[in-house]
Specification:
homohexamer; 306 residues; alpha/beta; Carbamate kinase; 8-stranded mixed β-sheet; 9 helices; 14 strands; 40% helix; 21% strand; globular
């Protein structure tokens, strides 16, 4: 190496050291905190994005947090239903999940599940793939929209966190497929967002991050520069009543608000299409998405202004 | 109830109490012992038999043992390969497991796995379904019979029992699909008998029971009354060299002997087609199959004669 | 063995397996629960009955419960008092326990105590014989019926469960002689039923079983077919106010009700003259005696009807 | 109080403080060490002496040691045998212990046992009275001197220290009656000195103290001023071969030497007729009896000279 | 030794044994209790007194208590300030602690701290010297008397007892210099009496002993025979309102009362100029100083009269 | 923010995320490993450098390592000795450390010690400052070069790691001043490099890093481009015997080699004058200094070539 090359190398790695040092307060504050990542939909379609999510989660684990992944099936489930030539029936706008559909859904979810495990393990970090059937973790009631039977779809009645606690205490990353058991001993499908909320509440997670295909919540939906970094519950309700939060955004924000009410410290809406979105949100002051918080849960005074 | 009916009821339940009392020495001696059950093949085809195996395993857990199930895929894997119209190639007598075949095998095994979990959970006992990928439990080398590539088939190089220990200590029944990770980060299929042997040895299991479709080992294969209850390693070798143990029985017995050599206390060949074969073998003096033992592993003096 | 003999053997042991499987839900539900057995009186006189009680208790331990025995002295104490030619004095209907009588009582109780320990140990199960003096477990006030001094007879003022907890956690069966310490540093005799109630309440036992010489509580004392399997506290009070429960049964039922009020899950009146009465009561749906329960303590909805 | 009285009071309590301070190095060095006290014979006959022994043991516990008492039956056993008019038979110089004798012996030993427990408890210190039957602690072979049957007398074959460890870890003082179980399930009497040695060796006691009715070992038996404070194993053997140690002293010294060989740190022969002999031996440099030590067990260089 | 010399020796060591036995109830009652000793001022000036305090503390540790020392700097700090020729400024009667003064104070306090550690270690007992900066134990607000800046002097806002708990659980004696950290990241001096009170309250100490240069509280300040052994909170307030407690005694008593209110079991004012004052107060019934107690904190009925 | 500004912000924080991800394998491999940093000399003189070292150490802690600091006194000790006008005497080239000098050295070292604690605590990370006197950690023999007395200078005879283990297990960073206790109860000064080696060996540290004022070891001392990244023990000996390593470098390299021989995994010579030298060495493949390793201690095959 010439003297210049050497200097260049030193400059490069010095930037690296500085970056690590800047992460220090975040690493310190999140030490041992449970962080649940809901991962599905668009963010799942792209292998490179998938790797970036998995690396982020592995890093969160290595710097002392306790991450958990709840995943959906992406578009794979529908693709398989089509593949086997199955026709879906709809009731009250819900697709009916008959026994065959449930079987396909479970196989696809298990496959996604073990793929994620494999990606984490290949980074040298320990992960365990489970569904809500394992350890009797998720018990469901049959979902009956307007009293109509839509098959093996369940609403979570009870979360038994014993297996989850065991895995977290022994330094495994739990990766969870949203499947549960009914009182009839049958397998039920669960909406992955609902599963993430219920589990985050049951284990008093510090953070719940939804990897979505939007950037976050805008103060003015037409102005891409009006993204809200930190949104207080009161303001969120105001935005809803004003009609600013509407359309596809409405159920997402409602879901987040419910999780905050159930005791989750802070719920993040992130753009899962951005590489390393978890690190960018958690390890920078401003973040890249929208964090929904409650004043009761102890956020910092000056955060709303920043 | 008439006086006679009452007497009859009392007689019946008295038999029950006597039976429980007779089980006392077995329950006492196996307390806290690890018992690995290899379950697959014929015993898996019949729902009633499946339930009987699962109930036996649940009971072993409840009376204080630490059971573990390693399962195969039964004939389901082949059925699915045929279903999707896949043609299998053979090399050196081994079916080549290409990426598509491996994907099907993994989906089927995961499905069997979660079904078994569900059956145990429905009895009110805690189970967790994992594969050798979870917690990095099974690391494999690519199998190369006579140097030929037969695809994603692995030989176990290392068992990392950390996840297994965690689950056993926290009172879950681990149910294991025989799938492992290669150094190339790929998923590999493992022979279920081999997986059972390797895991039993790695956790120093007290017992390893193979649920097969034979009754056990005969002293004279033509005489169904010559079943051997307890077979010492020396005698086993003699039966092999004499040619008494041969054909399909030979690899089974060799497998058992290898497990005994690797430190497993006692290896049982049971007829998985018999209901409650596990209880019948473990909780009666004579048993119903063949137990292969080593004098070094501390069997009781007078057992060979009984 | 001929083919028929073999079949017969198989049939026999299959019944055995079925019985064990039927016990599964009971074993599951009582896992790790504390069960206190009050043992004395008639059930103690017969060596065969004594062995049946001890085997039952050992089995309860082996299938995962935490049994404790509180015993009386049977008729041995009186026999010894007569033997040494001691004349008893009576005050207010209570036999006066002077220092000599107390000494004899303690010797007899200790002898019974160590005999029970020996019987359990001979089954290969660990037991420890203690009295309320050990570890300062039972502290008493001098009993003064109508202000009269009847000697070294005590009412329990305080149960210190530390020694009991230590033994239970370390998998010993505690066997307890009902003797306590007074504030004067003297040894006091305690009624064994009272000791059982006080200890069961202090350790929040799930079950307290009195082995008596009656079958249980009858709805109609003249009709042997009117035995009540499960008796709610409200109904019990009704039976008392109606005069149905009366005579020698009255204090027994009152004792049971007091234990239920003190937080014991369920109190059983069993006929200790029946072999394996503990297993018959605990491991069958209908049971053989009377269980006194409180709706507040969480019994199952449909039990009263069965 | 006058000024003089006050001064006198201060002087008195200052002496007290000085004494406590002088005990500091002994308390420090024996912290958490197991100390087994064999107590029986003459030291047991006198209530005042008994109280002094119990207070010493309680204090050893309170200042951080882990004391254990093994006791004999004093002369009580013989007194009771005479009382019930039983004639003893002798074989090879050993009294034959038939079933009746064993029963009396056990009752007397249990009574002594619970009395000692009571005395410790009355000082506010926790004690638990057990025999070798409890927790299966002492397993014996039938003693057959010259092949002759002398009844229920046993030699310890195995000490199972599990119960003892449990009690010590939970801060109870174990008080042990020297009774054991035979393979025939019967109760056997054990020589208390032998029991003390076997138990001290099994738990690797730091100290074993025999409370006897001699002052210790003399260099010249005729010179009361020649008491040996610290006796090395080599010198002990010399004294025996010289015939200096002889008569009743010989088996005592042999017993001590055996305990040292079995790994006990230091074995003390003390005069149990002296009040507070345990404190006087353990908490003063010179002590009052004879300590038998082995150079291998790490005594201090300069002790032999002092 | 002649017979008389021997007798004399025996008499002497018997007194010693008696003294130890008399300490038994105190040792028993204070077992595992946290005892905080505030040590400073006059008691620190004399090497012999210092050794007596350290020996007392070491003994308290050895007999099972959990002592903690909080020390001041004695007159050393002023001596060093003079030595370096520094002139002190005063504001509102408080000496201004500028950065230089704080540096000197910290150096002197650390020196005193490590000297005390060394003295304890030289007795073979484990001690660890820390200040309130270590483990972030003491966080302070800047003290502003009447709004005036007096430099680096702090009032304790928060005690983080984690380091203290860690040391106590692992059997070290913590020795604490009264220095804390401000929110500005600077080092602040803390009044040692205040530090002792705050720490004693934070760890729920059983006892807090101030080693002062007075004998205690007098009922009549002019009558040296009117020293109060045990002073109830109510009576203390009365003595203050009567003007009996006044002058330099007033802030001392107020400090003690505050500690009692904050949950410390009992606060002792002792004359640190008396050798072994801690043992004399703790291990005798009457004690030598004044113990301030609250009826709510559970003192014994008859103590006020004695 | 304009679109460009936004893009720029995103680019910047993306670099940050990438950097964190690149650190993943290092963080993973060093998890829970003990890393001892010897810090002193030039690296101590500059406040900015000091902060960079402290931030590095805090980060190592936060990402899961167990760092320990052993520090020297920099040039402060000499400065203070001069300040108080003390003349130093020299014997055999060693400065004589008389009692006054030792006192000054201890005060300076304690001051440095508490300053470092304060800097770590101000980052929100827990640190505890101790010397080898605390918990009796460092016991020394008096150093006698050629039999000459040079005062209170010690060579470590024994490291008692109990306090260190306690602090590490409870997540404190221990910061250690190199001072020990002699058998005479006196305080002794210890060479900081020697203390670091002895402590690293006693706790089986994975890494020992010396922050020096050289860049590392050169293959050719005249060629600044010949810095050796990883130096095997064999090659190190060769460089010494060739005379390549000489002068001031010789004792440094010898010290490192001794530590490797004593079981430390890998010893680093780093240039403490470079900011973030610890992160640069530990979290980059090539590092910035020289790591001395032994093939026996399990370095990676291909490291020597890189």
């Amino acid at each position: 190496m010439s003297a210049e090359e050497k200097q260049e190398y030193m400059d490069q790695i010095m930037v690296r050291a500085q970056t690590l040092i800047e992460a220090l307060p975040y690493i310190r504050d999140f030490n041992n905190k449970k962080v649940l990542v809901k991962y599905g939909g668009s963010a799942m379609l792209d292998r490179k994005l998938e790797e970036s999510v998995i690396k982020d989660v592995a890093l969160l684990k290595l710097v002392g947090m306790k991450p958990i992944i709840v995943h959906g099936g992406g578009k794979e489930i529908n693709r398989w239903i089509d593949k086997v030539g199955k026709k879906s029936e709809f009731v009250e706008g819900f697709r009916v999940t008959d026994r065959d559909t449930m079987e396909i859904a479970e196989m696809v979810l298990n496959r996604v599940n073990k793929n994620l495990v494999q990606m984490v393990e290949n980074l040298g970090v320990k992960a365990v793939g489970i569904s809500g059937k394992d350890g009797g973790m998720l018990h469901v009631d049959k979902k009956m929209p307007d009293g109509k039977d839509i098959g093996f779809v369940g609403d979570i009645r009870e979360v038994n966190p014993q297996l989850l606690d065991t895995l977290l205490e022994n330094d495994f990353i739990p990766i969870i497929a949203p499947i549960g058991l009914g009182d009839d001993g049958e397998t039920y499908n669960i909406n992955a967002d609902d599963a993430a909320c219920a589990i985050a509440a049951a284990i008093s997670a510090e953070k719940l991050a939804f990897l979505t295909d939007v950037e976050g919540v805008y103060r003015d939906p037409d102005d891409k520069n009006s993204l809200i970094s930190v949104l207080d519950m009161d303001e969120a309700e105001e935005l809803i009543s004003q009609g600013t939060v509407q359309g596809g955004m409405l159920p997402k924000v409602n879901n987040c608000m419910e999780a905050v009410r159930a005791g989750v410290g802070r719920v993040h809406i992130l753009d899962g299409r951005k590489e390393h979105c978890l690190l960018l949100e958690f390890f920078t002051k401003k973040g890249i998405g929208t964090a929904i918080i409650s004043k009761e849960n102890g956020w910092y005074e000056n955060e709303l202004e920043d």
